[in-house]
Amino acid sequence: MSDEKKTWQRPWYPKEIAENASNWSFAADLSLLKYLEIFSEDLLNQATTVDNNVNNLLNNLSKTSLSLDIARNKFLSLSNTQFIESRVYEDDETALPNDEKGEEEEPNKNNSEEINKNEMRLAALRGVEMINKYFDKVEVVDSDSEEDSDLTSFVLRPKDQYIDRPLPYVIGTEKWYKKLHVGLDDSSSESEHEKMSEKFSDTESESDLPITNRSQIERN
In this structure, is residue 87 part of a structural domain? Predict the structure, then answer.
């Protein structure tokens, strides 16, 4: 009897709940409540464990990514400070004497240095050409007093790329009717059109007629 009275003090598991379903009582409710409390506590503990494992996984992933970035930066710094060359050897050079190897390595080193100097010189010349092509040098006086009037400096001002391009003809004028490009063509192509028009100047072509005359010819 003492055991039966104390059944409400311990949780009932699903098998015991199913066996006592027909004889349900208030004590069974208390046992079911204890079982639900234990179940919820275990569920929360497992969820916390999974959350901690996920956080540890993210931390390890961040450390791996950081290590990869550090290794990449080391390779980049190595490529900036040291010349790396990939070569394919067709012949076996291991049998060559050390003197011949040394004589061959020195010309290769000199050639690579000469190539680097030529490339740097060519890059500098191209940079100067681009600056002269797209910028104008403007003189600027830096001094505020008359005594320092000789101190001058220069700044670069971008050139107007459209200053030499012609404006189109006014709509409705004679040139607008006669020219198919209405004045938007460049000078070289315009001179070619003028040469072609001189060849066929004896016979008046349809393109030289105004728009009203063209429509009349098409109707006829």
Answer: no
pLDDT tens track for 49-87: 999 999 999 999 999 999 998 888 887 777 656 665 556
Flag whether 80 is in a domain: no
Q: Three-state SS for 138?
A: strand
Cα 98 to Cα 22, 81, 86, 101, 165, distances in angstroms: 100, 28, 21, 5, 67
Taking CA atoms, 107 is separated from 87, 112, 122, 128, 180, in Å, by 15, 9, 22, 32, 63
Question: How many domains, the chain?
Answer: 3
pLDDT above 70 as % of the chain: 62
- Which residue matches tokens 């063509």? 185
Token pair, residue 48, equals 């916390």
Q: How many CA atoms lie within 13 A of 187 on its CB side?
A: 3
Q: What range does the domain containing 197 cover?
A: 174-219
Question: For residue 18, is it within any domain?
Answer: yes
Torsion 65-69-74-75 (CA) sign: positive
Alpha helices, H only, the chain: 2-5, 14-19, 26-81, 98-134, 174-178, 187-199, 211-219
Cα three-residue angle 64-70-76, rounded to 5 degrees: 140
